[in-house]
Specification:
By secondary structure, the chain is an alpha/beta fold. It has eleven helices and eleven strands. Helix 2 links the parallel strand 2 and strand 3.
């Protein structure tokens, strides 16, 4: 079997072209560009490289970029104050907090200082919670707007754009992180897949991964997934990225697994480019919501409306419910 290669680079360019058109329309309507602010502390080489990559991605697509760098010895309060100031700035639509932060600064505290409407990384508890509580994709939605981290959002986009069946499929996620593993599981569940999450304590891993119609891995362990761990014909989405023998590789032993799988993302050139493209789309979405509804309402533009409770036949209603029902009928 020769797997179909899910070309993330080509797909990302398609998504960027679509987003550029929407950005042009947004600018024409509102007289401003979507703006992304990146917050980091210190001069860690990896953080600097990431900031350059994000800046380049913004420039390619027409999004304004701001870099806000604090010294390595900045206090937690200073980081929180910076994030709060950017959250209140009407000219800033999206904010990324570059992690990890220096020792002594708690990531969670800084993230919670974000306005969820500007959390284009999908890291804020409100965004994560709304994703967890969202209804199945074909049902009326019962939560307000939220953002999903761009890596799993990109993984879902790959499956959709390449018309990979999700509904009714067995999906296995190797990794339980808040950034990729958990949100990917929730996205697939919303699309009616039956999902299993594997973590460090999962054993034997191969027996579980071999059951997957859709296999996603995001551990950062080079070539963790071998050909004997993959179900013939499965779709494999590789989020891993690490160095092995002088080359960048993924979690999946690509050369071997492509002979077994039905479809597979390469590394590099698979999920990575889509991740960046979806981040840019999140920034545009944030700008659209804030421009139409204002910053204060951008996280609440779809208020939850609950109807009266529906009681099963033969189940006695609580007294409070009976009284409430009587008052509704009386009015």
């Amino acid at each position: 079997m020769n797997a179909k290669i899910l070309d993330g680079q080509a797909l990302a360019e398609t998504i960027r072209a679509e987003t550029r058109k929407e950005i042009a329309s947004f600018q024409a309507e509102w007289g401003t560009l979507p703006t992304l602010a990146l917050v980091r502390a210190g001069e860690d080489p990896a953080s600097i490289s990431y900031a350059r990559m994000i800046k380049h991605a913004c420039e390619r697509i027409g999004i304004a970029f701001q870099s806000h760098t604090q010294p390595a010895d900045a206090s937690e309060d200073e980081m929180v104050e910076l994030v709060r100031r950017l959250s209140a700035d009407e000219e800033v639509h999206g904010i990324i907090v570059q992690k990890p932060l220096p020792e002594g600064i708690r990531d969670a505290v800084v993230i919670e200082a974000l306005d969820p409407a500007k959390d284009v990384d999908g890291a804020h508890p409100l965004n994560a919670g709304r994703l967890a509580q969202a209804a199945f994709i074909d049902r009326p939605q019962d939560v307000g707007p939220y953002f999903v981290p761009s890596a799993p959002l990109g993984g879902l986009e790959i499956l959709k754009r390449y018309q990979i069946k999700i509904d009714g499929q067995q999906a296995v996620i190797v990794a339980a992180s808040n950034l990729i593993g958990k949100p990917m599981a929730l996205l697939l569940t919303r699309h009616w897949a039956t999902v299993t999450i594997c973590d460090l304590h999962t054993s034997p891993l191969g027996e579980i991964t071999r059951e997957a119609d859709i296999l996603c891995s995001a551990t950062g362990v080079a070539h963790l997934i071998t050909a004997d761990m993959v179900k013939p014909g499965a779709t494999v989405i590789d989020f891993g990225f690490s160095r092995l023998e002088g080359k960048w590789v993924g979690d999946v032993d690509f050369d071997a697994v492509k002979e077994v799988a039905g479809a597979i993302t390469p590394v590099p050139g698979g999920s990575g480019p889509i991740t960046n493209a979806m981040l840019m789309r999140n920034v545009l979405t944030a700008a659209q919501r804030q421009s139409r509804f204002g910053i204060k309402l951008a996280s609440h533009v779809t208020p939850v409306k609950f109807g009266p409770p529906v009681w099963a036949p033969g189940v006695k209603q609580p007294a409070r419910a009976r009284v409430s029902a009587s008052r509704r009928h009386a009015t």
